[in-house]
What does this fold into?
Amino acid sequence: MLVLVLVLVLVLVLVLVPVLVLVLVLVLVLVLVLTIAIGALPTPVNCEYDDEHEHDRLQTTIGICAGVLQMPSACPTDGYRVITAMKTLLHLVLVLVVSAASHPGPAAENGAPAAGVKLTDEQQAWLQRAWRFEKNGWLFLHLAGAPQERGFQHGFLLAREIQESLRGERIAWKHHSGMEWSWLVARAKEFFVPAVDPENLAEIDGIVAGLAAAGVLSSREELVAYNGIIELAYYWWPQEKDRLKADRPPEPRKACSAFIATGSATADGRIVLGHNTMGGYATANCNVILDLAPERGQRLLMQGQPGWIHSGTDFFITGAGLVGAETTISGFTGFDTRGIPEFARMRRAAQDATTIDEWCAIMKRGNNGGYANAWLLGDIKTNEIARLELGLKYVAFERTRDGYYLGANVAEDISLLRLETDFRETDIRLSGVARRVRWKQLMRQHAGKIDLEAAKRFEADHYDVYLHREFAGERTLCAHSELVGEPLGRYVPFAPTGTIDAKVVDARLAHDMAFAARWGAACGRAFDAKLFLAARPQFDWMEGLLKSRPSQPWTVFRSGTKP
Ligand SMILES: [Zn+2]
It folds into this structure.
């Protein structure tokens, strides 16, 4: 019996090895032929930009993957469409071949290195100081140490989530712009990467190394573009699009609602801050609670996204007693490619500043106009709050120890509003205008009584000041565009967009390096992706991207909490 088994094994080995070698040779020949074929295809004159970066696209599996998701639509001739279809098919085959031959496959389970990867003693020591756990839809991530070390911990422990979030951003970028992700990464490499400071770059390099150890391929350039995707897609791209003569109205940007109050406005006379994020549900991946203990600078507890070294949604507290949030300035145009990326300035300000003034100075230095926001800041050491409206040409600053500031995506400074935005600030049918009015009503009604519980109720508010009734839609502080058939402004009917989270903090929690957060709609309303896509097939490009968002409870997160 044993002899029979041995003979069978021997026969199998003798047959399989030559077959495998033959397959490998065929694959290599196929790759060579396809590469030559793609390079030899003619290119129509009006589509140069699509092929200009063919080389870059072929350099990474990531770029190729993004390239086959959707056929380019900017080129009109039938002949070109045939060529494009052929090229797309060739790309697809090439992707499969290259993937099979060289891609390390899906990320390993979090906390385990990819097959064939052995962590160094130093890397294992780094990972001893970091951890992750999941709670009520959030992903708590503790990172500590030097930049490279923090980055490695981040990339390794969140490899699966970063891979998924990157996939979503690549698809969303292609859908948003019609351009390849690899093209964006190549452009970002030219002007965006060189302006990022060494510490932030070292942390990003660490993430790339951590990802690689877990079996996910990326690059410094890609992660910089990914970190800066908000400013690149919604601030740089509109200008660049004009240059390319693409004629398409801009899409709605991320929006938010926020308030900060102090003195006689609040129940205990101390600072209360509340913020929620409005964004597309398909790319709502900002469920990270980033707990940072850097070797230099302030401890940070902030909301984030897998693979981002900044907050992005922007809700943070620091070891220096600073709390902060922002809302974008609607209708803003302007971007300076010579400036420092907003994400890099935000991270530097959060980690390095010890006062509101220092924080603002860091944000203003090298301002590129990207992700132009109205920042609401508070210092629990002095009980002072402030608002920094950071346009590109116009910057406004106010501070007080008694009162409140609001954020509803409407510029408050009249010069900034008139000269750097095209926003109609009195059109009450618009979301930002309606939410701004609602905030003022709530601040008046609750003057002297604002506390954490009131802040949670504000975030979940469904009162529409245009309709004068409760109606959850795009105009309410807890926004639900997916419920609205006839929206105004730049929204389209039933867009799966709205409030994706809520966070609140007061001076007591901030002192303990803690805040309360709720993932999903601020009101707790659940969203079922499958039912939605069945009812709204116009959004079928989100198939496989849009995820259900169950109702989650409010949860307090504290710096240093272990699983
Ligand atoms: Zn709601």
Confidence is low (pLDDT under 50) at residues 31-106.
